[in-house]
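step: validate -> pass
step: tokenize input -> pass
step: predict -> running
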Amino acid sequence: MSQFVLADTRTGEVCFDGIRVNRGTPCPICKHDTWCLFDGVRGLAICPRTQGGRKIGDAGWLHDMVGGEVPKWQASFQRPPDEVMPLEGAMAMQEKFTSRCDDRVAILAFDLGLSVRSLERLGCGWNGLWTFPMRNHREQICGFRTRTSDGRKLAIKGSRAGLFVPEGRRRGLDEEVWIVEGPTDVAAMLDIGLNAIGRPSCRGSEKEIKRWCIGMRVIVVADADEVGVAGAESLIQTLRGSVRRVEMILPPRGMKDAREALNHGISSDEWRELIDVSESRRSTNGPTR
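step: predict -> pass
step: emit ->
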């Protein structure tokens, strides 16, 4: 279980020393078993899904687990908050994981309705679980997302949240990029010819995305639920002023995400029609998301 430490900037005193939730110990706030953090000693939790009285960067909102008043210390990360550092030995780990794949990538591709090539472009490997490298804005590997056979998302010890960036991606000031959640949604967009990168969750890595997308046209694809839309709207606010254009769309025909859309035969043309509809609304009703 990974640690997340905050210290008071005035005294240096540690005021939050949290660990990631897991299946056996879910978040006390939202009851999910991924991404949230809790500090049992201090009775505090940081949840990216449930808004509270205080935002702690990209990590989420700080909550008192017993319903008390949220502390008002001036806290900072123990590591620089604006720089996701590379993971030591990451390249050797990635080479080891991809050398062990055998037919594992093909099995995952078949199960999820994705192409082997798109998963390979994302660096999919095998270490007893499927692995996907996460990268900072410099495209250095900062961690590894893992996926179990029943679809649970975990991370290798020492990992830091980062972006899922495919090999051979197109990037430039005149390019567009589609932002989706998770590596398999990136693979789904690649399979229909769209230039995509993935964020690690519906909230988080906003600063890394901002640095990666400077000057680009950005389309943020929100998962079709309340949490997904809120996360997309937060990202859009972060990106404004640094990208050429940014807007949010939902998957077509009431589908949940990009992978479901791919498995129902949705083409890139149908995705682009959603942008056209968004632009039409904006010209008719004034500025929108």
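step: describe -> Confidence is low (pLDDT under 50) at residues 77-81, 283-289.
step: cleanup -> pass
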